Amino acid sequence: MKKDFPDKQSFLRDAEIFRDLTEQEVDRLGEKMPLKNVAARTILYTPEEPTEVLFMIKKGRVRLFRLSADGKTITTATLEEGTFFGQLALLGQQLYGNFAETLTDCVVCVINRQDAKTYLIGDARIAYRIVETLGRRLLEIEQRLADAALKHVPARVAALLLQFAKKQLDAQKDAGAATAEAIEVVCTHEELAQMLGVHRETITRTLKEFSRLNYIRLARGRILLLDTNGLLDLSAV
């Protein structure tokens, strides 16, 4: 194992799509998944230059996006540590028109088409988790589209912040926390605007109003959710 990445196996053991495997099985799989450092703002693939590999994010954040006919950027997903993405047709991930870009410096595990077919799709336990994850992403996109048609911008912003915080909220619920702790969401005003299809200035005004109501606290590149119940009520409006 490379000295630069002594905890690669530990990371893979914690990955959601490998949760049904034994440690020994994950360790063997890790031998097929070399790690790669990728600088921030690197385009990993484009519609003109697709890639037949699967990426898993060990460190950093990646966005998937498309370009409209007039050149407007539309972010379809912002992905964080522990999840996967790619353009592998055999995973149902070959979405024409998609770009993938690193938002921060990243460390990613890479697995090629043949190894993905043999070691991932060939294992029903992993294949099930992949389908589950892709289905969840599709539902999130559909929900944002429905919200765009039916809700005002503040409700849509509140809903998206809660979507970003879902994993942490679920963890608090599972732990039976008596008082919910503040949750940190890593994203910029521009990223929110691109995901919701609105102007950045509109997002900034909305977040300032949320801050005035003490629902959130703003920081550079981060938003601290102080009152998730208040945001939940607002998201339903």
Folded structure, characterized:
Helix content is 43%, strand content 22%. The chain has nine helices and eleven strands. It is globular and about 50 Å long. It starts with 7 loop residues before the first helix and ends with a helix.
What's the quick description here?
By secondary structure, the protein is α+β, with helices and mostly antiparallel strands.
By secondary-structure content and strand pairing, the structural class works out as alpha+beta
Radius of gyration: 19 Å
Q: What amount of the residues lies in strands? A: 15-25%
Placed side by side, the strands forming the largest sheet appear as: 1-8-3-6
Overall 3D geometry? globular
Number of strands: 11
Largest sheet: 4 strands, antiparallel
Any low-confidence stretches, pLDDT <50, length ≥5? none
State the end-to-end CA separation.
52 Å
Order of helices and strands: HHEEEEEEEEHHHHEHHEEH
Let me know the average pLDDT.
87
Helical proportion, percent range: 40-55%
Tally of helical segments: 9
